[in-house]
């Protein structure tokens, strides 16, 4: 008699009850069905394939992208008395032989394998002779060609569908918007009705998004609230992680850089320090991510705009996995938008893909510029509906709205009159009637929109322009100089002049902090 799922949960893991969708998924797979599991990081995906693999006759084959993670899982399972092994390229020949003996003899409950190893010579053929209980593909979003974790070898995993059509298949991930989800289902031939999508809310994370104004001062203020705690600061470039980490060390923090340019040993050492250290601040590019298993990360700060809402959700999701309060801060400015736009336009990809990327950027800007609850916008992106959360910056201090119709018209005409090629800072200077050499050289001190915006200050004009960009009334240029132009929607707006409510940027902590000190 195979042990029941609940039995395994208690005896192997020592837990009393399943969490969320776990039980339904486990039952579904034990019954021999496929499953797509979308669950946030820390949601408990591992049990969803481990338990059915043990409950069903045969060996569960788990495809996992990270050797380190695999080793941890296998060690933990073995400790609990589960017969688990990992097949990867690091394995010395004699251990490899012993492992194959176990596989052939049917002595394993779970076999972890790296995709590259799985696809290497003879492995699939030998596995064909073993009895499999299920096939689980972990971090399944890696097969999405459009995702930021794309791995070419993952793309070839559909060979498993052909070779083992009758073995239950599972695909698991923490990150998938609708298109990625559809791509995974189609590629692995898993039916929509086999999809399990778990609640994405992480109520213990407090979200805040602010204009990037004085980023170092803003970051310093944020970190002050997290003295003695571990967290991650995400930056866009390798150089910036180095510079920021060095600066933070000068400020007395135990800060380390992490990016793909460091050699393997240094990366591993830094990750170890973070994992086991008391209050390490990891200053990292997105290279730092998959495989972090630290429950007490108290904060995640983005000092550059992340790649997408999904990426943001996943990166901030590394905070507070222990369920205790954690905080996420994002700083962003118009330069970030220009840079991201440039990445998209300069990338060597088909137009269809660029369109998708642009709409992803729009969704992110929508989140950054919303006057409503951040969490509502964030979860809506994943198809979840919630009431305003009370635990984000906009819930705590609802932004003030004003009728921005006239301001928007002024900004758009100023962009138009200066030839639709100047960046945000220049447009703001012209609106404010700044006396500067560049404006004089272009003769823009002579045009009708020069100085028509003195009713607002620089900060408010910048915020207005960002919102016009987020609303897609203004486009950021493709050549990468951040030049602003009027979109078709912007032209419609100028023609029809509908009322446009805009938000006043929240007063910044850094400003208040500085004022208090001086
Ligand atoms: P994921 O792979 O989705 O990021 P894990 O499978 O690593 O998440 O699980 C996250 C943590 O939650 C682990 O420490 C795991 O042991 C714990 N966990 C999972 N399921 C349960 C449960 N039913 N009861 C208690 N703890 C659980
Ligand atoms: Zn909220």
TrEMBL record:
<keyword id="KW-0067">ATP-binding</keyword>
<feature type="domain" description="Helicase C-terminal">
    <location>
        <begin position="218"/>
        <end position="362"/>
    </location>
</feature>
<dbReference type="Pfam" id="PF00570">
    <property type="entry name" value="HRDC"/>
</dbReference>
<dbReference type="InterPro" id="IPR006293">
    <property type="entry name" value="DNA_helicase_ATP-dep_RecQ_bac"/>
</dbReference>
<dbReference type="InterPro" id="IPR032284">
    <property type="entry name" value="RecQ_Zn-bd"/>
</dbReference>
<keyword id="KW-0227">DNA damage</keyword>
<comment type="similarity">
    <text>Belongs to the helicase family. RecQ subfamily.</text>
</comment>
<keyword id="KW-0413">Isomerase</keyword>
<dbReference type="InterPro" id="IPR001650">
    <property type="entry name" value="Helicase_C-like"/>
</dbReference>
<dbReference type="InterPro" id="IPR010997">
    <property type="entry name" value="HRDC-like_sf"/>
</dbReference>
<dbReference type="GO" id="GO:0003678">
    <property type="term" value="F:DNA helicase activity"/>
</dbReference>
<keyword id="KW-0234">DNA repair</keyword>
<dbReference type="Pfam" id="PF16124">
    <property type="entry name" value="RecQ_Zn_bind"/>
</dbReference>
<feature type="domain" description="Helicase ATP-binding">
    <location>
        <begin position="26"/>
        <end position="194"/>
    </location>
</feature>
<keyword id="KW-0238">DNA-binding</keyword>
<dbReference type="Pfam" id="PF00270">
    <property type="entry name" value="DEAD"/>
</dbReference>
<keyword id="KW-0378">Hydrolase</keyword>
<dbReference type="InterPro" id="IPR027417">
    <property type="entry name" value="P-loop_NTPase"/>
</dbReference>
<dbReference type="InterPro" id="IPR044876">
    <property type="entry name" value="HRDC_dom_sf"/>
</dbReference>
<dbReference type="InterPro" id="IPR018982">
    <property type="entry name" value="RQC_domain"/>
</dbReference>
<dbReference type="InterPro" id="IPR014001">
    <property type="entry name" value="Helicase_ATP-bd"/>
</dbReference>
<dbReference type="InterPro" id="IPR002121">
    <property type="entry name" value="HRDC_dom"/>
</dbReference>
<dbReference type="InterPro" id="IPR004589">
    <property type="entry name" value="DNA_helicase_ATP-dep_RecQ"/>
</dbReference>
<dbReference type="GO" id="GO:0016787">
    <property type="term" value="F:hydrolase activity"/>
</dbReference>
<protein>
    <recommendedName>
        <fullName>DNA helicase RecQ</fullName>
        <ecNumber>5.6.2.4</ecNumber>
    </recommendedName>
</protein>
<keyword id="KW-0347">Helicase</keyword>
<keyword id="KW-0233">DNA recombination</keyword>
<keyword id="KW-0547">Nucleotide-binding</keyword>
<dbReference type="InterPro" id="IPR036388">
    <property type="entry name" value="WH-like_DNA-bd_sf"/>
</dbReference>
<dbReference type="Pfam" id="PF00271">
    <property type="entry name" value="Helicase_C"/>
</dbReference>
<dbReference type="InterPro" id="IPR011545">
    <property type="entry name" value="DEAD/DEAH_box_helicase_dom"/>
</dbReference>
<keyword id="KW-0862">Zinc</keyword>
<dbReference type="Pfam" id="PF09382">
    <property type="entry name" value="RQC"/>
</dbReference>
<keyword id="KW-0479">Metal-binding</keyword>
């Amino acid at each position: 008699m195979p042990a029941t799922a609940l039995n395994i949960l208690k005896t192997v893991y020592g837990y009393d009850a399943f969490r969320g969708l776990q039980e339904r998924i486990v039952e579904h797979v034990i019954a021999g069905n496929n499953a797509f599991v979308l669950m946030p990081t820390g949601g408990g995906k591992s049990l969803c394939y481990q338990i059915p693999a043990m409950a069903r006759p045969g060996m569960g084959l788990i495809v996992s992208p990270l050797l380190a993670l695999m080793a941890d899982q296998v060690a933990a399972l073995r400790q609990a008395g589960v017969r688990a092994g990992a097949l990867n390229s690091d394995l010395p020949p004699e251990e490899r032989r012993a492992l194959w003996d176990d596989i052939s003899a049917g002595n394993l409950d779970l076999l972890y394998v790296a995709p590259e190893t799985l696809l290497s010579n003879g492995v699939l053929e030998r596995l064909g002779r073993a009895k499999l209980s299920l096939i689980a593909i972990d971090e399944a979003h890696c097969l999405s060609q459009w995702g930021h974790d794309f791995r070419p070898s993952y793309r070839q995993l559909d060979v498993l569908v052909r070779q083992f059509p009758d073995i239950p298949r599972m695909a698991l991930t923490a990150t998938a918007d609708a298109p990625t989800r559809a791509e995974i289902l189609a590629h692995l031939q898993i039916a929509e009705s086999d999809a399990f999508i778990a609640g994405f809310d992480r109520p213990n994370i407090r979200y805040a998004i602010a204009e990037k104004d004085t980023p170092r001062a803003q970051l310093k203020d944020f970190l002050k609230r997290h003295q003695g705690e571990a967290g991650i600061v995400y930056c866009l470039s390798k150089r910036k992680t180095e510079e920021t980490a060095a600066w933070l060390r000068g400020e007395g923090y135990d800060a380390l850089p992490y990016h793909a340019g460091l050699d393997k040993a240094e990366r591993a050492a830094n990750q170890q320090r973070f994992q086991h250290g008391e209050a390490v601040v990891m200053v990292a590019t997105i290279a730092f991510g998959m495989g972090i298993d630290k429950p007490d990360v108290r904060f995640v700060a983005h000092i550059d705009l992340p790649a997408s809402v999904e990426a943001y959700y996943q990166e901030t999701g590394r905070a507070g996995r222990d369920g205790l309060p954690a905080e996420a801060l994002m700083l962003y400015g118009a330069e970030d938008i220009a840079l991201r736009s440039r990445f998209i336009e300069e990338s060597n990809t088909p137009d269809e893909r660029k369109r998708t990327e642009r709409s992803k950027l729009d969704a992110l800007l929508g989140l950054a510029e919303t006057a409503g609850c951040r969490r509502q916008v964030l979860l809506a992106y994943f198809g979840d509906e919630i009431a305003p959360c009370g635990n984000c910056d906009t819930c705590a201090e609802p932004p003030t709205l004003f009728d921005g119709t006239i301001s928007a018209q002024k900004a758009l005409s100023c962009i138009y009159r200066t030839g639709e090629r100047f960046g945000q800072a220049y447009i703001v200077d012209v609106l404010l009637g700044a006396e500067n050499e560049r404006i004089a050289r272009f003769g823009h001190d002579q045009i009708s929109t020069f100085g028509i915006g003195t009713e607002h200050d620089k900060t408010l004009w910048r915020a207005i322009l960002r919102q016009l960009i987020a609303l897609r009334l203004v486009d950021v240029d493709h050549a990468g100089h951040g030049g602003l132009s009027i979109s078709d929607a912007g032209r419609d707006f100028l023609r029809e002049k509908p009322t446009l409510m805009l938000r006043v940027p929240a007063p910044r902590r850094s400003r208040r902090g500085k004022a208090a000190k001086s």
